[in-house]
Amino acid sequence: MRSLLAYYAEAVMSAAARGAGCTLDCSGRGDCLNGTCLCEIRYAGDQCAVPNFSYHACIGGIFLLVAFICAVQLTICVVSEYRRLKAPTFLRACKVTTQKMLYFVAFLASLIRGAYFVSPSAFQEGWATSLLSAYYPLLMSGSSLIVCFWAEVFHLRDIRWERPRFISKTFLAFATFNVISYSLLAAEVLTTNFADTSAEKKSFYQHVFNGFYAVLLFVVVIFFLIYGVEVYFKLRGEFLKETKVCTVISPRPGPSTAAEGDEAQDTLVTKQGVQTDLADNNGTVDPRSVNQSQLHQSRVGLLSQALMLILIAGFLASETLSEFWKTKVPVVSRNWHDVVFRLAEIGVALWFPCVLWNSMAPERLWLLNPRRLLSKQLDDATLAELLARHHDTKNVETDSLVGSVGSVRDCWICYDSSRDEPLIRPCRCTGDVSAVHHECLRRWLVESASTPDGLKCKVCNTPYIVQETNRVEWDRGFTFVHWLRTALAVACMCGAGAAAWLVVQLFASSVVRVLVAGAALLVCYVAVRFLGMNTVTAYQRAKVSSLRILTEPSAEHSLATISQTVTVDITSKAALSQALKADEK
């Protein structure tokens, strides 16, 4: 009897609550359907008065996971740079670079947005709005930094893009734009939290500032697409041009000090800067010399980020005009609007750690090194034509070749003069390091296949001319060590999943379950990333093992001293000085 009375009492209270909810118009956060409030996805309860904790926990958890990944990548970047320094110090390792700044901005934006969504009721209404708005200036900081970096890629020449650096010529534009965006954020914080304004005016000011953010974000997207299309679609820019330092050996002017009849003569060794340009006269690049895989990856990444930025700008503009349309649209449509909005925000934040996946070698990222779009590997069909074009062009980098007739050369790798295998000269080095056995050099390249400049000479920095074959040496890439590492990674993922399932079954506390699930996901993420990098490295080793290295074309050795020269355009003194400094580094 007592339970029956309790049941009727609960039913009466529930009906009263539903009636009250519709009487209060569902707190302005939902629609009344048959006496029941259908709340917006951000709110819950009979009167839509409390936040929807499931929705906020899901969105906030994803943002916090992105922030954690960015923090790990930033730490790995600092540690790897510390290890590369000859005189390592912590301050030099923390030197500001474009990569580190992007990691930091993505980390801070995701952390702030995650902090709000995880505990929306922990902040007052004004500060919660400020936390939501702080995401957009940080987002524009990262996007504008990429735009400034691409502007330097397009306009500046003779910059070593494969080295970690920060923007230089465009820093003033970057700082000015960020001063504007953060000034708007400071004005919004002062208006909504410190100024004595009514709730209606606070809502009005919030809509106005959202409109400003939408305009600034739209400006960023325009320049993002302008420079992105020029660099990654049209393949234009000064990054295709480079000043090389060449050694020129010429007879010294004036009377010779050598005895009469002696073949020796005074020579003058000078350094000259030679401008190289990978584009044709009409400004286009031969598609056969482009790394199509990197090109397609860069285009997909560029378009995806641009699309998500446009969506966010559009959603901010719609929030500015929400007073005119939100009350006329059903709650289901408003919920879809909110979900797509949050997914776009998550996608933009997640884009940064995805395109900056290689924390230890930023020169392998298409975002930070546009020269990754260029390929030096040639197939059988294009080899002869490109070599002929290489000889015909005048605007090409060259070195003076000095050698003696009949001089005996040894392989600079094995130094075994008893081998019958002929020696090749794959680069422009002279002296004792000019000749090498083909098999020795191929083994050398296989061991250094994981490095970004593996197919370049470590001395003269000349790319090797290689010829691809139809076969791939799988056994040289996928070795026993590779399969052992793969088995360990799979075992770690399975063990983490099994341990998480066991803890969830044994413990009823939601906190313990969430922590264990997060730890298992982290272990799986690290294992999957290690597995992917290990597989890519093995494939690169197998691919390099099947390459055939060709000798560098050179003039025949018919004289005691040979000097190979070409007609070049000597660059300015400033460009030559900058190239010499880069060569010394």
Automatic annotation (TrEMBL):
PROSITE patterns: ZF_RING_CH (PS51292)
Residue stretches spanning the membrane: 53-80, 101-123, 135-154, 166-191, 211-233, 300-319, 339-357, 483-504, 510-531
Keyword terms, alphabetized: Membrane, Metal-binding, Transmembrane, Transmembrane helix, Zinc, Zinc-finger
SMART domains linked: RINGv
RING-CH-type domain ranges (all copies): 403-467
The UniProt record lists the keyword Membrane: yes
GO molecular function: zinc ion binding
SUPFAM superfamilies the UniProt entry points to: RING/U-box
Gene3D superfamilies per record: Galactose-binding domain-like, Zinc/RING finger domain, C3HC4 (zinc finger)
InterPro entries: Znf_RING-CH, Znf_RING/FYVE/PHD
One of the Pfam families matching this protein, by short name: RINGv
Annotated signal peptide: none
Protein name: RING-CH-type domain-containing protein
Native organism: Loxostege sticticalis
Organism classification: Eukaryota, Metazoa, Ecdysozoa, Arthropoda, Hexapoda
